[in-house]
Design a protein that fits this description.
- The complex is a heterodimer.
- Chain A is α/β, with parallel strands linked by helices.
- Helices cover about 35% and strands about 25% of the residues of chain A.
- Chain A contains ten helices and ten strands.
- Chain A has helices at about 45-50, 85-90, 105-115, 120-135, 135-140, 155-165, 185-195, 210-215, 235-240, 245-250, and strands at about 5-15, 20-30, 35-40, 65-70, 75, 90-95, 170-175, 200-205, 220-225, 225-230.
- Chain A is globular, with a radius of gyration of 18 Å.
- The two termini of chain A are about 25 Å apart.
- By secondary structure, chain B is mainly alpha-helical.
- Chain B contains nine helices and no strands.
- Chain B is globular.
- The two termini of chain B are about 30 Å apart.
- Classes of the chains: A alpha/beta, B mainly alpha.
- The interface between A and B is medium-sized, with 16 and 17 residues.
């Protein structure tokens, strides 16, 4: 499969936790302004792979990575790369919403402040814009000074997305962003992802295969640390090429 | 292919396969008794066709409901989804075939058709070949055998030729003997209905191609289907599909 407008490209990526190899020779191209889903059974390496895309694995002792991760023609594992700047460009949303125990406003304004923006009117603008993009402005505009912890689980997750958007990233990595949410909140997140892909490249790990089928343009199936199949989502869910992929998506193992 | 983790899902799919094969077998029996009734001028055979129709109608509803249930409860994908979609469609084709056989028999019960008249035509042979087509398709479905589905399509092409020959034979008879216009008209109708039955059966074969290969074989000739499977189809066809 030929990917046009590649945003992220990994080449022969291996990852070891100590002596245990968790990712084996992963080569794939992730397109710009599309949603790419990673699926596979627990322990297959999909979350580990996601975390290699913004060097989150650097924080874990004993991790060794070989191969390349190229984003916009730059190898992010180059020794001259500023990891803080990298993570500003490659935002991340986690499975469990993790707002700071601060106001809704402060949660969103935190990133821009860290990046040196202190002008109040500029911050107001960023907060409003980010909350709007994350489709939570209407629900929070009258209580920006209230604690973020008073929001529902789904709202907290959208707030975390707003916080991620506030630093103006190119790419958003999502690690099971809706797995702890009820169906209505899940639908809102899914709808939001569809809107966000117009401006951002989105990579999502999900255990929910129907979710991957609903929201993604491309799907990669991982198994035992290997990339088994990567193709357009409609191909993966109607006529996958690999027998193992078909067995997984049809619920024959997992 | 291994079994699903969900035994309930496996049971549903196996039951659907079983019901579709049963449906096909009932329709095949209907055609067998339809032609027997006409050739032997025997009402008992005609009654069997009507009895079979009731079973077919009941099974038709069960299959339809089951397909909807599986989609709603199990959200099938890939080959499981194709099984449900093609199963649903094949069921419709078979039910229509059952209705057609029933209508042939109902008309037969209301008119006098001298058995020797049909013996001069290739209608009995057509009926045999349609049954053979159905049998091949049932085997193709059970064994997931592409070639058997192609054999069925080839048989349809033979039946099409017979249809034309029968038309000539019967219209000639009518021209020379006006007293047999009515039974000959009926046989022309049977001839036409058998041709449509064969086309319906061909449509089932094309559905099976989608089930096996996820390639749409509708409205395609046998050469095109085989080329498509082997990947040797001309580029224009591929371009059209991508545009879809």
């Amino acid at each position: 499969m030929i990917i046009q407008n590649t945003k992220i490209s990994t080449q022969n990526l291996d990852l070891f936790y100590g002596t245990k190899q968790a990712l084996n020779d992963i080569t794939l191209d992730i397109p710009e302004n599309k949603v790419t889903a990673f699926i596979g059974p627990s322990g297959c390496g999909k979350s580990t792979f996601l975390r290699t895309l913004n060097r989150m694995n650097d924080l874990i002792d004993g991790v060794k990575i070989t191969g390349k991760v190229i984003i916009d023609d730059i190898d992010i594992y180059d020794k001259n790369i500023d990891v803080v700047q990298l993570r500003k460009r490659i935002g991340m949303v986690f499975q469990k919403s993790n707002p700071f125990p601060k106001s809704i406003y402060d949660n969103v304004a935190y990133g821009p402040r860290v990046n040196g923006i202190n002008d109040r009117s500029k911050l107001d603008e960023i907060v409003e814009e980010s909350l709007k993009r994350a489709a939570i402005w209407e629900e929070t505009k009258d209580r920006l000074k209230n604690s973020a912890l008073g929001l529902s689980g789904g709202q907290q997750q959208r707030l975390c997305i707003a916080r991620c958007l506030a630093v103006n990233p190119d790419v958003i990595l999502m690690d099971e962003p809706a797995s702890a949410l009820d169906p209505i909140s899940t639908s809102k997140i899914e709808e939001l992802i569809q809107e966000l892909k117009e401006q951002y490249t989105i990579v999502i790990v999900t255990h929910n295969m129907q979710q991957a089928a609903r929201i993604s343009d491309y799907t990669a199936f991982f198994y035992l640390g290997e990339l088994i199949e990567y193709d357009k989502t409609k191909k993966i869910f109607t006529n996958p090429t690999n027998k193992k992929t078909e067995e997984y998506v049809t619920g024959r193992f997992g | 292919m291994n079994e699903h983790i969900s035994k309930r899902f496996d049971n549903e799919l196996n039951k659907l396969r079983y019901r579709l094969v049963s449906m096909g077998t009932l329709v095949q029996q209907q055609i067998e008794f339809t032609i027997k009734a006409i050739v032997s001028d025997n009402m008992d055979y005609a009654k069997v066709v009507l009895e079979l129709e009731e079973k077919i109608n009941s099974l038709d509803i069960k299959i339809e409901k089951q397909c909807v249930r599986v989609i709603a409860l199990h959200q099938p994908v890939a080959r499981d989804l194709r099984l449900i979609l093609t199963g649903y469609q094949i069921n419709i084709y078979l039910e229509i075939m059952g209705d057609m056989a029933t209508n042939i028999v109902k008309d037969f019960m209301e008119m006098l058709t001298p058995p020797e008249l049909i013996e001069d035509t290739k209608i009995p042979e057509m009926a045999q070949k349609i049954q053979l087509m159905i049998n091949k398709l049932l085997d193709s479905f059970i064994d997931m055998d592409f070639e058997l589905a192609m054999d069925a399509i080839r048989l349809e092409e033979e039946i099409d030729k017979m249809h034309k020959e029968n038309f000539e034979i019967l219209t000639n008879k009518m021209m020379y003997n006006y007293r047999i216009v009515q039974p000959c008209s009926y046989l022309l109708d049977v001839n036409r209905n058998f041709q449509i039955l064969a086309r319906q059966t061909r449509s089932i074969a094309q559905e099976l191609v989608y089930l096996f290969d996820a390639k749409v074989a509708k409205h395609k000739e046998i050469d095109q289907i085989i080329q498509k499977r082997s990947g040797t189809e001309i580029k224009e066809n591929i371009k059209t599909e991508n545009q879809e």
